[in-house]
Amino acid sequence: MKFRVEWLEGYGGVEPKICTMDDFVSEEFNLEAYWGDDGMIEKLRELLTSKVGNKVMLANGMGEKVVATKLPKVVYWESDEPPTLKEAQEIVGGLIEIVPYDYHKIKDTDLIVNEEGLIHGLELNVDAKEFCKIPLAGNVLVLKGDQRLK
Q1: Who wins on pLDDT, 63 or 79?
Q2: String of b and e for 17-36 (b: at least 16 CB within 10 Å)?
Q3: How far is the CA of 68 from the CAs of 5, 76, 132, 143, 148, in angstroms?
Q4: Average of pLDDT values for 20-34?
Q5: How many Cβ atoms from other residues are within 10 Å of residue 60's Cβ?
Q6: Mean pLDDT of the chain
Q7: I need a labelling partner for 23 at 20 to 30 A (CA). Which of 2, 29, 135, 145 fits?
Q8: Residue 45 — left, alpha, or beta (φ > 0 → left; ψ -120 to 50 → alpha)?
């Protein structure tokens, strides 16, 4: 899962980075050394596994602050059967909407998004740019063939 880290204080002019948890604790970032002792790594892991929260502010004992924002993902449905309404709503985090075919042109495929994603300020899904002509906010559920909603 990807998230964006924005440095607020203590880092002076560092650009936001998109990374994974592996990146965050890697030698390149070396942030575990700065944040591990203050329990921030655990808070970040909780955010990434949470179905509820999308952002967390992290602060350490040296006065440094960052905001970590969980980025939306593209979810490919794995069952041969279509998801139930409840399953689709859980994945996109709210009311569902099928993206019209004119916007993605992927044959025999439904893209399901949160109908109110932009209204609720969900993050834009950068991975969905690969196959969709319009910006999509939040998680995108991809259903192919018999998986499509009837």
Answers
A1: 79
A2: eebeeeebbeeebebeebbe
A3: 5, 25, 26, 30, 34
A4: 64
A5: 17
A6: 80
A7: 135
A8: alpha
Spatial CA neighbour of 111 closest among 145, 140, 149, 76: 140
Distance from C-alpha of 128 to C-alpha of 134, rounded to nearest angstrom = 9
Half-sphere exposure (CA, 13 Å, Cβ side) for 53? 15
pTM of the predicted model over 0.85 = no
Q: What is the pLDDT of residues 113-141, one digit of tens each?
A: 999 999 988 889 988 988 999 999 999 99
pLDDT, residue 82, reads 94
- The pLDDT assigned to 71 comes to 83
Residue 13 to residue 22: CA distance in whole angstroms = 23
- β pairing state of 140-144 and 74-76: parallel
Quick one: residue 46, left, alpha or beta (phi over 0 = left, psi -120 to 50 = alpha)? Answer: alpha
Q: What is residue 2's predicted lDDT score, i.e. its pLDDT?
A: 73
Measured distance CA(121)–CA(123) in Å, rounded: 6
C-alpha 92/C-alpha 57 separation (Å) is: 23
